[in-house]
Design a protein that fits this description.
This protein has about 270 residues and is an alpha/beta fold. The protein has a single domain (about 15-270), classed as Rossmann fold (3-Layer(aba) Sandwich), CATH 3.40.50. Helices cover about 35% and strands about 20% of the residues. It is built from ten helices and 13 strands. It has a nine-stranded mixed β-sheet, with helices on both faces. Strands 2-3 form a two-stranded antiparallel ribbon. Helix 1 crosses helix 10 (about 250-270) and helix 5 (about 70-80) crosses helix 6. The radius of gyration is 18 Å and the shape is globular. Bound molecules: manganese (II) ion. Manganese (II) ion binds near residues 161, 196, 221 and 235. Manganese (II) ion binds next to loops.
Amino acid sequence: MNRYYTIKGGSYISAVIGISSYYVNDSEMGTVQERLRGVSNQDMSMCSTDYLNAIYKAKGIPIILSPIANHKYIKKVLDMCDGILFSGGSDLNPLYYGETPSESGTIVPQRDKFEMMLLKQAVKKDIPVLGICRGLQLINVFYNGSLHQDINLANPKQEKHDIINLPKWHKIHKVKIKKDSHLARAYQVSSINTNSLHHQSINELGDNLKITAQTADKTIEGIEVKDKSFTTAVQWHPEMMFSHFKIHLRLFEYFVDKSHEYKNQYMNKST
Ligand SMILES: [Mn+2]
């Protein structure tokens, strides 16, 4: 049976989804700090409400995770959560894939360290993981892949993927979805129009990963981990699109459903 439709007509699905957050240094806050009414010398942990709304709309319970790189804390977080969403944000430190930061933007070591530690324990536990944008890049690098630090410089003739001068939900390119993938099961279509807000992309694909979505110019827009129940990621931002194009909610519904399933299995195992 198609589980997507069982959620739609079913009762409230209570899966707790932990969402990784931005770590913004005080020195980078600038005028934003004034709007937040923060006092000086305060770093901020922030999360776009688009992620929170998407998870909630998909009948999950969104929780913003504090970026604390401590093993015991992360273990507790994973005990509390039924799924983890790795959100978009700053560029990953290229040192993780053996390159020096040349064309990358701002790098936030605290966030990189926390998310690498969280992902390591999450895949060990096989808790459902959804990566979005930076989240996809994080998963690829964790599995020993590499990134183009800047797509435009890597291949100047390629389509533009960093379209930030249009509304965030605007359709930019068509993405082909591979059959027999979590993305195909979630979206129930073989291609979909998406936004594109990234200046980095996958260069070498990581070990044990499968490409699940690509644009016509061969940019990798979707991946999943072969031997995990649900560790899947997209390069686009469905959380910015679902309120205009309902189809983009399907990925969150599928993810919340997988997380609910995981919770039930886990509870059955531990009792
Ligand atoms: Mn793109």
